[in-house]
Amino acid sequence: MHQLTTGQPGSRTLRIELTLWNATVFWAELRSFRVGPEADKYRIDWTGYSGNLDDSMYIHRSKPFSTRDVNNCAC
What we know:
two-stranded antiparallel sheet; about 30% strand; globular; mainly beta; three-stranded antiparallel β-sheet; Gamma Fibrinogen, Chain A, domain 1; Fibrinogen_C-term_domain
């Protein structure tokens, strides 16, 4: 993900779409989305948000990535 999102600044947008059983579509876009390098614990960042979903990603912004065996969030 780091290599895919590294490059010219502002060049990547992450779009998430959720479709309900009744065909209602919810979406969110994170502009200038990037995943940092391993040395920075794969922190995610972006510069803008739009969509019809609540911005629930904001709590993850600039936080290090965690797994079951590597807890980087002190939780």
